[in-house]
Model the fold of this input.
Amino acid sequence: MQKQNNPAAVFSCTGLSKEFSAREKNIAALQDLTFSVAQGEFVCVVGPSGCGKSTLLRIMAGLTPMTSGDIWFGQIDTPRPRTAMVFQGQGLFPWMNVLDNVAFGLKMQGIDKKTRDEQALNFLEKVGLKNFTDAFPHTLSGGMRQRVAILRAFLADPEILLMDEPFGMLDAQTRIVMQEELLNIWQERQHTVMYITHDIEEAIFLGDRILVMSGRPGRILADVPINFSRPRERHSMMAKVTEIRLRIWDMLRDEVARDLGAGL
Done:
């Protein structure tokens, strides 16, 4: 582990690389990533398919070991979980109702049932799901299931919330509504967020910064600050969003074309 120079950071990595073995060959997924994330930052990651974005989150979550480099987490002496992850496929427990799914992280922390149910109900009311506490995931729409998954992660109160394309399977209209709901929840709790998306415009609307990654092996091409004030109003941002989106796409165009030419 490296020594941390930025006291505001909750995560940093230096020279982080990851290789996978396949058919007796080593395939480089990530190469020499160096960045830090400050307390309360909403950091988005964009890049071509297969560039290692999800692998990065899995390393941060402790689900996948890195091959080389140094990583550092802050606040390790607190009782809060280090990370919580929201997947594209929601990852809800099908045998649990909505209330128990949302409260699951608190249950794992040993919080008594009365307290965790009260906190879960408070969150569900904020996003219009209070009347669905006894419903099971298979009875909900995709947007409702993703609300439940996001609430569960926020209520667990992790140091860093890891979100892997959580709205990737939703239709365009539902996605816009969910982006705004996510920001409303985030602005209340101010968690540190690492958010992966293929949608550049989504990254601009949500993020404080955007890490732009190259094609495989994934490297950081740019760290783009997003200097819109919060809370954000989509309509007033549109002209500037287009300018930033085109600038980021100029960085990614050759990377995507190269990956397509390689048969990915």
